[in-house]
Amino acid sequence: MPELQPLLQNAALLKVVTLLKNAGKAVILGHCRPDGDAIGAALGWAEYLRHLGKQVSIVMPDPEADFLKWMPGAQHILHFSDDEQKIRARKAIAAADLLCLLDFSQTHRLNDEGLIELVKMSKAQKLMIDHHLDPDTSSADFTISSPEASSTCELVFRLIYTLGGYDHLSRSGACCLYCGLMTDTGSFAYNSNDPDLYLIVSLLMRKGIDKERIYRNIYHCFSTNRLKFWGFLLNERLQFYKSGKAAIIAYSSSDMEAYKYKRGDAEGFVNEPLKVRGCRLSISLREDTVVQDKIHVSLRSIEDVPCNLIAQRFFNGGGHLNASGGELRCSLAEAVKTAEQAIEAFSEQL
Ligand SMILES: [Mn+2]
After folding, report:
1. Which of 17, 68, 106, 108 lies at a 20 to 30 A Cα distance from 128?
2. pLDDT tens digit string along 317-331?
3. What phi, psi does 335 have (nearest 5°)?
């Protein structure tokens, strides 16, 4: 049976051990609009830190989508966007001697000036664990960055395993970490060719998690409105370009209103066009429901089509090779034009 290799060795491992040993009160932070990986990693890591005897709070800039609320422990996460919880979050951060920055590589991903400032000014030791590109190592005392990892949950699992914490991992903790592995790989459809990933899955399964139930909780949780909204987007708002090699989905806040859109309802839709044979790039443009002329951009691709470069050059964003995001400040119609230019500019690579 192959063995899972340690995540860190020697000096690096010692540094993390020392960081943890010196900490009594920890706060775990994740990125805005936290996904299954951010929430899963935070909950899994929190369990381990509590096992070490630390007092732990989890602070997210804003709430997770409804389909993640069932995750064990999610109900105790503090949302900085909530006035009452913000007070508790501020207190926890002020009292913390360790801040763990999970699933983001740049503090602007906290997306709240007040929260960013709190983290920057904090005298606590900071540990960043992340798998995004270009980590801002200056924002943490120690950074575990591994862009080739499937997910932050994978890194957190490997770290817990390396630190000897696997035996103490509970079924709930395993369930949370599995969620991140599953959601960040589209249920092992991409970013998941590392054979060691399945060693980790096996080790998580040995904790008694019900992965079929987890799958249903995450993916088979549509409201009737959401499913009909997807049908509407497919029929009315999806355009193909370059003989089907690229796609743009553009929808307005009034489209969302018509289908009683709830946060998370469009989650995953950007992947749909890639189901078409030969489609290699999908760009989704979503109008903000509150701020005028603000467009949320999401990009997905396959193989060597560089979403991250397209996001950088055209959409004020970045991310991974096959999954990136960005933002435009313009009308939806102008955003479509920008996306068409992006497809034109990268047509050689399609
Ligand atoms: Mn992630």
Report:
1. 68
2. 988 889 899 999 999
3. -65, -40
